[in-house]
């Protein structure tokens, strides 16, 4: 068996990734495909933590724009991530992949609370740990939760799954000349004002010297290639 480049990874999946081409919610077919991709890397012996977003269901900013109290709207956003986490864990169970959901907000009847030591134990036992409810605090995002949980569990890299297969010099949908960065340093990304993750998440990864690989979850085999250390998407490094 060829060795993977990383032993432990933190995969950030946006809520939109679960939606596919639908306008809202969870597309079962898409979820099942993503689970298949995750299963492939688990079978390589890689320990996988997942931070899941909630944008396919609810975003705090959007709620606040309609006049809702921002913190209330953010808590609703965090609850949306719990639903996504449960859907993902259930799809994993159906695909014979062991998974546990840990929530940053306590909902003990539904999922485990986030307990760092227990999360690490699950990972060591080969279970996928899905971190729900972001950081548990309003005014943050699940990108920041990914940087935080990645740092806490000692992940060697954060894999940010997006719709685009990396970071480009310009928007590839608008500019046919846009070039993909294969590798870029944190400082260079800041210098070029590239939005790799939100600013808080990016700063935390940079401080912790936690590399980020941006890639497309919709490209078959891309997740596996990133984990094998191949040139896939964009690697942001110290
Ligand atoms: N959220 C929050 N604190 C966190 C993480 C998320 O308040 O630590 C809320 C916020 O309202 C956000 C929503 O949960 O809009 C969904 O998360 P996010 O927008 O990051 O999801 P994604 O864009 O990845 O689907």
TrEMBL record:
Localization annotation: Cytoplasm
Signal peptide span: none
One GO CC term on file: cytosol
Listed EC numbers: 2.7.4.22
InterPro entries per UniProt: AceGlu_kinase-like_sf, Asp/Glu/Uridylate_kinase, Uridylate_kinase, Uridylate_kinase_bac
Keywords of this entry: ATP-binding, Cytoplasm, Kinase, Nucleotide-binding, Pyrimidine biosynthesis, Transferase
Top-level EC class: transferase
Ranges where the Aspartate/glutamate/uridylate kinase domain occurs: 7-215
Biological role: Catalyzes the reversible phosphorylation of UMP to UDP.
Descriptive protein name: Uridylate kinase
Organism per entry: Pseudothauera lacus
Taxonomic lineage: Bacteria, Pseudomonadati, Pseudomonadota, Betaproteobacteria, Rhodocyclales
């Amino acid at each position: 068996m060829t060795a993977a480049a990383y032993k432990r990874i933190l995969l950030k999946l946006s809520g939109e990734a679960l939606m596919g081409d639908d306008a809202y919610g969870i597309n079962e077919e898409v979820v099942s495909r993503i689970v298949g991709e995750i299963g492939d890397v688990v079978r390589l012996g890689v320990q996988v933590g997942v931070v899941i977003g909630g944008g396919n269901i609810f975003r705090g900013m959007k709620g606040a724009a309609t006049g809702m109290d921002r913190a209330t709207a953010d808590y609703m956003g965090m609850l949306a991530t719990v639903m996504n986490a449960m859907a993902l864990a259930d799809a994993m169970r159906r695909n014979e992949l062991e998974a546990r959901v840990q929530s940053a907000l306590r909902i003990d009847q539904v999922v485990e609370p986030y307990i760092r030591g227990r999360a690490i134990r699950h990972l060591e036992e080969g279970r996928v740990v899905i971190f729900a409810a972001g950081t548990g605090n309003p005014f943050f995002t699940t990108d920041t939760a990914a940087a935080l949980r990645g740092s806490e569990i000692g992940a060697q890299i954060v894999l940010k799954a997006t719709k685009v297969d990396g970071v480009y010099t310009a928007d590839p949908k608008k500019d046919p000349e846009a070039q993909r960065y294969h590798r870029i340093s944190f400082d260079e990304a800041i210098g070029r004002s590239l939005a790799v993750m939100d600013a808080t998440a990016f700063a935390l990864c940079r401080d912790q010297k936690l590399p980020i690989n941006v890639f497309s979850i919709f490209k078959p085999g891309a997740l596996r290639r990133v984990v094998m250390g191949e040139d896939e998407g964009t690697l942001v490094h110290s």
